[in-house]
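Dear all,

This email documents one entry for the complex benchmark we are building for the journal club exercise. For each entry we list the sequence lines for every component of the assembly. Then comes the predicted three-dimensional structure of the complex as a token string, followed by one or two observations. Please use this as the template for your own entries, and keep the labels exactly as they appear.
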Amino acid sequence: MTAPETVPARVVDARNRPASAGPAAHSPQWGVAVVLALLFGVGAAVARRPDIAVFGALFALVAVSVPARFGRRHAPGLGFATGTGSDDPARGRRAVVFRDASGSDGAPALVAVRALAPGGRESALVATAAETVHLGVRVPLGGRRELLHYRVSAFSTDLGICRDEADTGVLTAMLQPQASPLGRLPIPAALRAHAGSHHARLRGGGTEIRDVGPLRHGDDRRHIDWRATARSTDAAGTPLVRRYLAPADAGVTLAVDSRVDVPARIAAWVDPSQDALRMVSSLQLTRAAAGSVAAAYTSRGDRVGLLDAFGFGAPLRPAGGHRQLELLRRRLAALAVPSTSLQPSRTPAPAPGSLVYFFSPLLEPDAASVPAHWVRSGHIVAVVDTLPEIDAAGLPAAEGQALALLLATRAAVRAELATEGIPVVPAGSLRASLELWTLQRARTRALPGAAP
Amino acid sequence: MNPLWPALAPTHREASLEPLEPGTIPATTLALVAAVLLAAGSLPAAVATAAGRGPLDWVVALGAVGLGVALVLLWPQHITALVALLLLGAAYVRIGGVGPWTLPLYVLAAHAIHVLLGLAAIGPRSARFTRAAVGLALRAAAWPQIGAQVLAAVVLLLSLWGPRGTGALGTAAGIASACVLAGGAWMASRVAGRAEDPD
């Protein structure tokens, strides 16, 4: 599963300080030319030779022609667009726009940008200060990632004076997961008794009033509010009808295992020189799958929460609505491997009675312990396997053996999950797998934690 | 396969950023144009020098031009720009043998070589330049560079009738003015290309 190229991206310029001018910019050319012109002039006067005076005139011409200094208005700066522009999917690039942000008053100057991206080679672009240039920059498939370390310099037009930006800029990108539509989802009938009822933000047949408005096609005539209609000043006499919120019963918790982020190509696990930027990785699959599940449930009016299954980071309480979905997408986009290996001792608990989706590549030996604990606590748990389809091409023999051991560990984890009766669905075919699981649950009428 | 050749290396790395609009000029193209101008500007003088002499003179004259062209192509930096300007300066000395008709060629070649190689030295070999940037630099540097070179050439022509030593001094002054301009550009590019502070 890969994120489509239409995913909106936020590009953030993470400079700690705003652009400021570097060292003072006086022209060495101007100084040398003035000194030589004076020397030749004095020499011509002493020797009384007009031809030597002509040489002095030559350097005087140079001194007059080149700028003597580069004013503060030429302090270089760079502005990046906050969002990406047109895409170049053929080369896996996205466009960011840069322009001169020095606020110069239109004085001509050249702006040189030197940039280095992780896994790329250093490159540069030289443009005039008046230009706006669309740049192609490689971006990750999802998540937050540093795109560029860059430095910008401003040159006088004769290339003789340079003002250098004091700080090196860092450009980061945040890509939110793209939701794939999901079909039939497991839940309501089995969960209604456990989750309690709540009102969705959708219109429906609940008991809590949503709004009062003119009668439209599809409204229930039994809900016409005659008193409000009588008070209405509408000359047409359109009856007003009360609309109610829909009841929604499901609470869903998305639990993610963010301890490892493994790309599809095994060689990239240990070789940092390989460009893993555009490889499908386990966390990228987690973002996409969890984003799809969250979008599917919130669109039905259900409540969705998010937590790290091993206690890294604060959980997001279950709630419904578009705002919650946006929060979930941002949290998923910012998902990253924890910087510490000290695992919190307490296992976080999902909301009572909620259905739990546990996203994990199942590579750690203890990956089955947490979902098993939740099942014993009365939750219905489904594990979404986020290990991408691995590519072991060109792997040395020793690393091949290590991979075999790792896959054996993974098989043991899956066997433990099967023993606990926890279904495992692959993230790569989430829609079909969830539909199959829904049908199986409907057929067996399984209760939480019970064997199918 | 030569592993030292970057394009053929096993892990070829892509450029970190690339302009999406067509029409930007790579640094290698600037170096190529400068090399062509150097060859065009200095070949007439080289041929005039070697004409009527032995094969060794031909080898030396054409070898000097070829060496300058190769340096410009392989290492487009300020130091190679100075080498190229010295070659063109040597062509000034032979202007009497070649004819004044080559004078505009020398002047324009010196100007373009100075600007193009100065631009190419700003960034790494993978740098790209917008057309507007190249045009602006060529126009802005025209006054000091072309003016100085024309003045030096006029002094050289006047030296045919002037006091002894004026011609050599005029040539030296012309080269010195080019060196002043190129040296300033070299210092400016050093500021832009300084190593990053890891802190």
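Observations: Chain A has four domains: 9-23+71-175, 28-65, 203-247, 251-444. Confidence is low (pLDDT under 50) at residues 1-8, 82-91, 188-196, 446-452 of chain A.
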